[in-house]
Every structure is written in structure tokens, then in C-alpha cells.
Design goal:
Residues 5-321 form the CN hydrolase domain. Pfam families: CN_hydrolase (PF00795). The active site is at 44 (proton acceptor). GO terms for molecular function: hydro-lyase activity; nitrilase activity. This protein is α/β, with parallel strands linked by helices and 357 residues long. It has a single domain (4-329), classed as Nitrilase/N-carbamoyl-D-aminoacid amidohydrolase, CATH 3.60.110.10. Helix content is 26%, strand content 24%. The protein has helices spanning 18-34, 65-77, 90-93, 110-121, 163-166, 200-208, 225-236, 254-257, 262-266, 308-313, 322-327, and strands at 4-10, 39-41, 58-59, 62-63, 124-133, 136-145, 149-155, 178-182, 185-191, 213-215, 239-242, 246-248, 271-280, 286-292, 314-320. Strands 8, 9, 10, 11, 12, 13 and 14 form a 7-stranded mixed beta sheet that branches. Helix 1 (18-34) runs parallel beside helix 4.
């Protein structure tokens, strides 16, 4: 019997506040649910924002005061999920951490909101988040199940280039895959955030855990991203879902552009990220082509779940998870094609055995 589910990627952009972004996420998820979607992926840094073009007033050996004000704005726009700076792992997932006095949850309520949206729509939500814990920010991804709530969260282990200035490194232990059941189909899901997918050993750590859905939320809108995710799908014999934001210069927050920035006004319609969200099958075949220069938030009527912009910016595909096993006839990079007698991989704090289903 085929093991089929319907998946989607949302080409969405961060809104002016966390509350409006969560409202937009809810609307897109309702749209997906109405089309039979079981799992949807939102882009890297969707909640909290990706600060494109911002240098935070820095150069090597030099800081400007306005850059610290920019960082304060960015820090305050990030999400508090109630985790610890070191990352509490299963204790955070299972809600075993101490509660603040007078509250029945940790953090700012974003976790609870995501769980409610997933539960009400019946859609599994995977979403990029900028998470604050202590005095640091982490680029994270959360897994939210409609039945069991938050199943896990991982933090980017290697921020790219200038991201290293503003994001701390996450623990490799958060690369732990999660398991769930959607539409009667058992799934093993893992995520690599943006350029983590260029790290061969990180990819292998996900393949080793038996992921059949590889999530790749990204900020990379170059044409070279598609060949990479096609390679990953074929290499790991896994479905790859990748979602990116689509952003025009005028949509950047004022604390980046400056309230009266002439450049922002003159070049407001310039795309600084064109998107490129797509879905790839486990032989590397493109199931849904990259979508460019369209965004869920282009909808003329935000309350209309049938708005053409939503249709264009939410890419949907029915997939058969048995295709992952079909592909392993001739390639299993963690089994018969691995030469594991000669090559070994270990990850600090991470069990690379496939999790029980």
C-alpha cells in the first residue's frame, strides 16, 4: 500500500512584528490545510527575521554605536521559546524546566501559539525561528506536530559569514531527527539550515538517522541552490523541502534601512531575495520547480484563502515515502554503499542510529 502524504513549502516573508508574522503563518497554514497538506515548511528566520543587508555598524576591529542600537532592535524582535542558552533538549521539549513565578509556560507564548495553530489546522509545521536565550541569538528550526505539539527544536551549528556576528553556534546534539506519523505514514524528519547543507558530514549525520524528509529552510536565493538540494535528495534518497523568503528592499525594517533612506525609496521594488522554494524527490528529480518573485504576503485580500498569491507562493506536492526505499536499490550512503568498515562518523552528543518508529 503506498505511503503517501501531501507536503508544502511556503515562500513567505517576515512581517513588521512577531504577532503579524504569526497571523500570516496561521493564514498560510489554513490555506494549506484546505488543500489537504499534512506538512508545511516555512523559511529560515521566518519568525524573528533575517536582517538582509545589515552590517550592524561593524568592520574588523571597529564598532559604531548605531550598530548596537540595530542589534537591540533585532534582539527584541526575536522569539523567546523558553529554552536555556546551552539548550535543554528533551527537558525543554517535555516541559520539565522550571516555570516563572505566576506563569504556566516559559517564554513569550510563541511555542504555545504554534502548537495551537498546528492542532487546529491538523498540519505539521516546520518553521525557521530567530530564538533568543540569555544574551545570545540562535538561528533555529522547530518541529510542531498537530497531535503531540513541539517534537523538537534545533539550532544552526555553523552560522555563515556575517551571520557569525549576530548568531551564536548551536549544539550538534540538536541535529537529532524526530519521528511522527501523518496520514497513517511514519516519518523520520531532520533539518539542515541554509548553508549547513554544504557541510558533507552534517548531511551524513541526517542520512545516518534515516531521514526520509530532509528540511532545508534557507536564505540562499541563488541559482546554485537548486543543484545542491537535488544532489542532497539523490545522495540521501530522501525528499527535500526547501523554503526561502521573497523580499523587496522596501520591505526591510526601518531599523535596517533608516526611516528616510533615499536608496530604500528609490530602489524599493528591487528584490534582495527572489525566493526559490521547491520540492525535490529522492532520485534528485524536481517535483515542484523553484518559485521566484512571489510571496504569500502579496495577497490582495489576506482573508481570502483562495487568493492567487497564496496559490502561487505555496508549492504543494503529494509524495510517496516508499520512493525513498525504491531509491536504495542502488544507493544507500549509510548502508551498502557506505563502506562503513573504512569510514566512520561520530557527532558529539548525537546518536546516529535511526530513531525507533
Amino acid at each position: 500500500m503506498p505511503r503517501k502524504i501531501t507536503v508544502a513549502v511556503a515562500q513567505a516573508s517576515t512581517q513588521s512584528s512577531l504577532s503579524t508574522t504569526l497571523d500570516a503563518l496561521h493564514r498560510v497554514t489554513r490555506h494549506a490545510a484546505a488543500r489537504g497538506v499534512h506538512l508545511i515548511l516555512f523559511p529560515e528566520a521566518y519568525l524573528g527575521g533575517y536582517p538582509r543587508t545589515c552590517d550592524f555598524g561593524t568592520a574588523v576591529g571597529f564598532r559604531q554605536p548605531h550598530g548596537r542600537d540595530q542589534f537591540l532592535e533585532y534582539f527584541n524582535s526575536a522569539v523567546d521559546l523558553g529554552d536555556t542558552p546551552a539548550g535543554a533538549g528533551d527537558d525543554w521539549v517535555d516541559r520539565k524546566l522550571p516555570l516563572p513565578r505566576g506563569k504556566d509556560y516559559r517564554g513569550d507564548g510563541t511555542r504555545e501559539t504554534l502548537e495551537r495553530i498546528s492542532r487546529e489546522t491538523g498540519v505539521f509545521i516546520a518553521c525557521g525561528v530567530i530564538e533568543r536565550a540569555g544574551g545570545s541569538l540562535y538561528c533555529s528550526a522547530v518541529y510542531v506536530d498537530p497531535r503531540d505539539g513541539m517534537l523538537g527544536k534545533r539550532r544552526k551549528v555553523m552560522p555563515t559569514a556575517s551571520e557569525r556576528l549576530i548568531w551564536a553556534q548551536g549544539s550538534p546534539s540538536t541535529l537529532k531527527a524526530i519521528t511522527t506519523e501523518l496520514n497513517g505514514v511514519k516519518l523520520t524528519i531532520g533539518a539542515a539550515i541554509c548553508w549547513e547543507s554544504f557541510m558533507p558530514m552534517l548531511r551524513q549525520s541526517l542520512y545516518a538517522q534515516g531521514v526520509n524528509i530532509y528540511l532545508a529552510p534557507t536564505a540562499d536565493s541563488r541559482d546554485t541552490w537548486l543543484p545542491l538540494v537535488r544532489t542532497i535528495a539523490g545522495e540521501g534518497r530522501t525528499f527535500v523541502l526547501t523554503a526561502n523568503q521573497c523580499v523587496r528592499r522596501r520591505e526591510l525594517p526601518g531599523w535596517i534601512t533608516g526611516a528616510s533612506s533615499r536608496e530604500a525609496a528609490e530602489n524599493g521594488d528591487e528584490y534582495i531575495s527572489r525566493g526559490g522554494s521547491c520540492i525535490i524527490g529522492p532520485l534528485g528529480e524536481v517535483l515542484r520547480e523553484p518559485i521566484w518573485e512571489v510571496c504569500t504576503d502579496d495577497a490582495a485580500n489576506p482573508d481570502d484563502l483562495n487568493d492567487p498569491a497564496l496559490e502561487a507562493a505555496v508549492s504543494i506536492s503529494e509524495i510517496d515515502l516508499d520512493d525513498c526505499e525504491r531509491g536504495k536499490l542502488d544507493l544507500d550512503v549509510t548502508g551498502h554503499y557506505s563502506r562503513n568498515d573504512a569510514f566512520k562518523l561520530s557527532v558529539e552528543g548525537l546518536d546516529l542510529n535511526p530513531p525507533p518508529l
